UniProtKB/TrEMBL annotation:
InterPro entries xrefs: LRR_dom_sf
SUPFAM superfamilies assigned: L domain-like
Domain of life: Eukaryota
Organism: Triticum aestivum
Protein name from the UniProt record: NB-ARC domain-containing protein
């Protein structure tokens, strides 16, 4: 199965978990599960590193009008997805995807499964993450080379829970601080003492590390 097209008619599906389906699996067919009568609200996609690659749920198209051709945005569609777990970091943290998920997604878990080579988030990925205006819970798992958390977390004004797990190189919280909405900050499992110590002074007694 190279796409999700064979599943696209399962309009009552609410949860979908895909594990180790390989790099050839792409998300075509997913949109029909998230819009136009679909009910999918929880998705876990692991082991398909190009699942979201180049996906634009709201593409632009050329529309002719009385004054000539002009590129305009088609009618925007929104998503039903509330929870997402994925290790396709590059694919999901793209502006078209995050814009599509912005009004629905409340929980995002990003995992690397100890794959190396990612020391920091790109500016484009940081900007895309900030589009998730409904996000209430954000988790980072198993980033063995990540040097710092993404900048701009302060702009996630609905965020209530932030978790950092098994990210040993990270020494501190972002320089631009955390959102005022944050209620719980968890730092667990193979994180540095420097980070844990900084977090203990963040907002006691609500902090649990």
């Amino acid at each position: 199965m190279g796409t999700l097209e064979p599943l696209s008619n399962l309009c009552s599906l609410t949860t979908l978990e895909l594990q180790d389906c390989g790099e050839d699996l792409e998300c075509q067919g997913l949109q029909s599960l998230l819009t136009t009568g679909g009910q999918l609200n929880k998705l876990e996609i692991m082991g398909s590193p190009r699942f979201f690659a180049d996906w634009d749920p709201n593409p632009k198209r050329a529309l002719e009008d009385a004054e000539g051709g002009e590129e305009q945005q088609t009618q925007l569609v929104s998503s039903t997805l509330r929870e997402l777990m994925t290790d396709d970091i590059a694919g999901v943290l793209a502006a078209p995807v995050c814009r599509f998920l912005s009004s629905s997604l409340t929980k995002l878990q990003l995992l690397r499964n100890w794959c190396g080579g990612m020391e920091r988030f790109s500016k484009e990925q940081e900007d895309a993450l900030q589009l998730l205006s409904s996000l209430q819970e954000l988790k980072f798992w198993n980033f063995k080379d990540l040097q710092q958390l993404p900048a701009g977390l302060r702009n996630l004004t609905s965020l209530k829970i932030l978790s950092v797990n098994c990210c040993p190189p990270i020494l501190s919280l972002p320089n631009d601080a955390l959102p005022d909405s944050l209620e719980k900050l968890y730092v667990r499992y193979n994180c540095t003492q420097e980070l844990k110590q900084q977090c203990r002074g963040w907002r006691e007694p609500s902090l649990k590390s």
